Amino acid sequence: MFAVLKTGGKQYKVASGDVLRVEKLDAAAGDKVQFNEILMVGDQIGAPLVEDAGVQAEVIDQIKGIKTINFVKRRRKHSSKRTKGHRQQLTLLRVTDILAKGAGKSGVKAAIGGAGVSVAALDAAAPKKAAPKKAKPAAKIEKAEAPKAEKKATPKKAAPKKAAAKSEADDLTQISGVGPVIVKKLNDLGVTTFAEIAAWSKDDIAAMDEKLNFKGRIERDDWLKQAKKLAKG
Fold this sequence. Notes:
Elements: E1 2-7, E2 10-15, E3 19-23, E4 32-35, E5 38-41, E6 44-45, E7 54-64, E8 68-74, E9 80-86, E10 89-99, E11 109-112, E12 115-118, H1 119-125, H2 136-151, H3 161-167, H4 180-188, H5 194-198, H6 202-212, H7 217-220, H8 223-232
């Protein structure tokens, strides 16, 4: 009886006692492995695989294939060329038995995807990993949505205070000889109202003359008298 098995992306027609080379399997010399991707066994044709069929084989050795040389050359201004060799790693094995049925209960480790894993371990592990992953995302979404509603309400309460501060300052440009530039300098020095100017003493006037570099201009223009009248309205 013969069978057609699939491993490493290739298909092999085998019979009991055949020796073949396949893509490297994770198995040592002397290990027994079982191929479970069986496309055909005798007259049975799979759709695409034959159920519960298998091919058992004994690993003879881990070998390397024939060396291949890859040469690449780029024809450009800064040309380059590269030569690289490669030897594919293979597993040499001997087919010992072809099972038309009962492969799932044989207990021989399976050679699937280049890794030796027991058939019983694969069947037991498959359903356990899918269930816990669905429960975690629901808790994360609830925690992320709750804090966003609380943060948006607080920052808007501080804005109205600036309007009240501006309305307390007087228009100092009503004093003769005081323009916007001088008003800015007075504001920087903390003077914003007529009452503040009207309350200046001689020492204050002398200090302001020096800071503003007016050279007696405050007394000449009689800022104090003008400020008293404007403060009374």
